[in-house]
């Protein structure tokens, strides 16, 4: 299943019914980014614990022997549990934000020792470590690899999850990167979305990304390329390449393109070699170099506008349903800082008259959360904000409005 809106909907539904989604797929395809975006769309946060960085089960459970005094005054030892820092941060956040569903993301759950995997599975099943229980509003998501050097999971372990075998999706990657994606990279992914995940260039594949049969290259075929350390084209490596191209000097790129080099028996350009360092010798590289060459020759380019994702907090419907100003004010007073900030963001985006709610929130907020601030600026600069609601916000006499005016007024 591809990383798209359908998968997002299915994962949210699994979380709603108390199931634990398991995202199984190849490394570097965007599982971690998907979970972070999922949490943001739910108006909450994701707390990522890379299980492959844990040496043994004790690193996960925090099991320690500590001295204590028995009732008869003699000294002894007992085992206590100090949850991993990431787990404790998730617990603390969940307790402070009881109406949210914060995500505890156990990444690379089976690319570690069997001892650590066993401990992670116990956490999923019992939702506790020793005497420390996960709050009821914490939702768990796990991710792992379905091939390679991994700890296999038996049927009893697999039955604990709703397993989704995932593949990268070009449209989702472009949406996640937004305005940060390089226009050349975006052009290639738009025209040839199937090139988002590749290993070495198959000899049967021609420049348009299709082979002599049906154009399908399986994941197994892509990873069955021997033991050479060749770079892959994946969402992760494409993101890195995109960032480099965004800061690269076009004149320098033109120089690289015009500089021939020899790589083994293959004649290519210095630009090819530079791009292959990020995404390998793949059809994606071939198409990207051709796109860059054509664009440099015509001196064209530009970034297309993307749709800004504005999450709707769980509390928002109750805010809109409040019948009076007083009732709305009382409800706003019960919200957490993150809920207030997220509700203000959504009220500004919604194409309805939200002036009353916006004023209530603006008066109650001490600061707009950093992630919400970035989204607000994206909304304004791309003109994806309700003009009437923005003007209502700018007319409010409140500290948070006065802080935002210098930036937002430039776009009115």
Topology (elements, then pairings):
Layout: H1 5-16, E1 21-24, H2 31-41, E2 46-50, H3 57-61, E3 63-69, E4 75-81, H4 85-96, E5 103-107, H5 114-126, E6 128-129, E7 132-133, E8 139-144, H6 155-158, E9 162-165, H7 170-177, H8 183-191, H9 219-223, H10 235-247, H11 250-257, E10 260-263, E11 266-269, H12 270-279, H13 283-298, H14 316-321, H15 325-333, H16 337-349, H17 355-364, H18 370-381, H19 387-394, H20 399-408
Parallel strand pairs: 1-8, 1-9, 2-5, 5-8
Antiparallel strand pairs: 3-4, 6-7, 10-11
Provide a descriptive summary of the structure in words.
It is a single chain. The chain has 412 residues and is an alpha/beta fold. Helix content is 47%, strand content 12%. It has three domains: 5-54 and 89-167, Rossmann fold (3-Layer(aba) Sandwich); 179-298, no CATH class; 316-411, no CATH class. The chain has 20 helices and eleven strands. The strands form four sheets. Strands 2-5-8-1-9 form a five-stranded parallel beta sheet, sandwiched between helices. It has a two-stranded antiparallel sheet with strand order 3-4. The protein has a two-stranded antiparallel ribbon with strand order 6-7. A hairpin with a 5-residue loop joins strand 3 and strand 4 (75-81). Helix 12 (270-279) packs across helix 13 (283-298) and helix 16 packs parallel to helix 18. The two termini are 42 Å apart.
């Amino acid at each position: 299943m591809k990383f798209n809106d359908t998968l997002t909907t299915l994962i949210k539904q699994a979380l709603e019914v108390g199931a634990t989604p398991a995202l199984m797929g190849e490394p570097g395809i965007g599982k971690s980014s998907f979970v972070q975006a999922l949490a943001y769309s739910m108006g909450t946060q994701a707390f990522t614990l890379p299980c492959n960085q844990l040496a043994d089960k004790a690193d996960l459970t925090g099991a320690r022997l500590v001295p204590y005094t028995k009732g008869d005054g003699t000294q002894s030892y007992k085992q206590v549990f100090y949850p991993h820092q990431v787990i404790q941060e998730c617990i603390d956040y969940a307790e402070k934000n009881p109406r949210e569903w914060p995500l505890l993301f156990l990444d690379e759950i089976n690319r570690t020792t069997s001892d650590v995997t066993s401990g992670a599975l116990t956490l999923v099943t019992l939702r506790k470590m020793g005497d420390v229980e996960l709050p009821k509003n914490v939702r768990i998501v796990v991710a792992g690899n379905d091939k390679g050097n991994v700890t296999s999971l038996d049927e009893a372990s697999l039955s604990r999850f709703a397993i989704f075998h995932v593949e990268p999706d070009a449209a989702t990657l472009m949406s996640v990167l937004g305005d940060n994606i390089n226009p050349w990279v975006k052009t290639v992914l738009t025209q040839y979305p199937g090139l988002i995940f590749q290993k070495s260039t198959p000899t049967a594949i021609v420049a348009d990304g299709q082979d002599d049969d049906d154009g399908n290259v399986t994941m197994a075929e892509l990873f069955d390329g021997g033991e050479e350390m060749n770079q892959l084209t994946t969402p992760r490596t494409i993101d890195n390449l995109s960032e480099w191209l965004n800061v690269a000097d076009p004149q320098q790129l033109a120089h690289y393109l015009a500089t021939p080099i020899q790589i083994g028996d293959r004649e290519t350009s210095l630009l090819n070699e530079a791009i292959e360092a990020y995404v390998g010798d793949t059809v994606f590289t071939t198409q990207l170099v051709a796109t860059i060459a054509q664009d440099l020759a015509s001196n064209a380019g530009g970034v297309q506008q993307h749709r800004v994702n504005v999450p709707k907090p769980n509390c928002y419907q109750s805010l809109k349903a409040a019948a009076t100003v007083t009732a709305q004010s009382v409800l706003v007073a019960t919200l957490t800082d993150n809920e207030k900030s997220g509700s203000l963001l959504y009220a500004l985006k919604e194409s309805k008259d939200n002036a009353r709610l916006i004023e209530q929130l603006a008066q109650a907020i001490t600061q707009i959360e950093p992630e919400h601030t970035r989204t607000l600026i994206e909304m304004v600069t791309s003109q994806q904000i309700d003009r009437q609601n923005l003007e209502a916000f700018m007319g409010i006499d409140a500290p948070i409005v006065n802080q935002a005016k210098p930036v937002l007024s430039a776009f009115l």
